[in-house]
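Notes from hallway chat w/ T.B., transcribed later so I don't forget. T.B. wanted the structure written out for a chain they're using in a teaching module, and asked if we could keep both sequence and C-alpha cells in one place. Agreed to drop them here.
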Amino acid sequence: MSRPAAVDVPLHLTPLELGTGRADSATASNEKIQWRLSLSASRRYADAQLDDHRELARRALPWSPPVRLSLSARSSTPRPAGTFGFGFWNDPFSFGFGARGAARRLPQTPQTAWFFYASPPSDIRLHHEVSGEGWKTATLRSRPLHPALLLPGVAGAFLGMQLPPLRRGLMALMRRFYHAEETRLHFDPSQWHSYVIDWRLDRVVFLMDGEILAVSAEPPKAPLGLVIWMDNQFAVASPENGMRFGVVPISEPQWLEVANLHIARGETRPAKGA
C-alpha cells in the first residue's frame, strides 16, 4: 500500500519582539521576503522571533514526525552577533515565561532539530568533536527529568562548572543525559539558500539547496514547536571555558530574512542518500 503524500498545512506564527528586536512581515515592495527579523544597535538583550506555540502547553505543541519544514533564508552578514536559526524545539526553559500571551510551563529537558548559528564568545560544546560556535545543523534528544530534579541539577552543574578541576567530569556526566548530533556548515549564510528539515520517525534529514548536509539517527522527542529567531545572547558550556551566559553588544543593525516558508505533514519522497 502506498503512503499518503505530504500535505502543506497552514502556519500560524506569532511575533515576539524584545529590546530592539523587530519582526516585520513582507511588503509589496519586496515580495521575495516573507519576514525580516531585525536587531538594532544595542548593549542589552534583544530578540526578534516567530513561533507557533507560545500560548500552548507542551503536550499540545503542534509538530510530530513525519513533518517537513522548508524555507529560504539569508542573514545580513556572514557572522552576525549573537544567535539565529530555525527549526523545531520544545522551548525547554520557557523563554516566553511571563511574556504577553505566553503559556506558563515548567522547565523541561531540551529537544531540538534545527539549523543553528552562534557567534563568539558562545561555546556550546554539546558534542565534543564539533566546535561550540559557528553555523551548524543540530539535533538534541534529552532524557526526561522531573522539574523537581531538573532545576537543582542545572543549578548544581552551573556552580560546579565554575571550578576548572570539575568541568571535564561534569561535561561527561551531563552527556549521559542527552544525545547530540551536530554538523558544522561551511558556507555563507548571508546568501540566499533553501533549507529543509525532514523530521521522520527514525531520523532527521537536513538539506540545503537540495543537497543532504546531515542525517541524524537520533530524532528529538515529539511534540515540538516551530521557531525562527535572531537575538544577541551567548552561552558557554565547555570543559575549557566553564558555563556562563550573557549578551553580545550589537554595534550596527543586523537581520535575518525568510521566504518561501512551508511546512508539510506526512511522508515525503526520500532524498537520494537519505
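Follow-up for T.B.: DSSP finds two helices and 18 strands in the chain. Might be a good example for the class.
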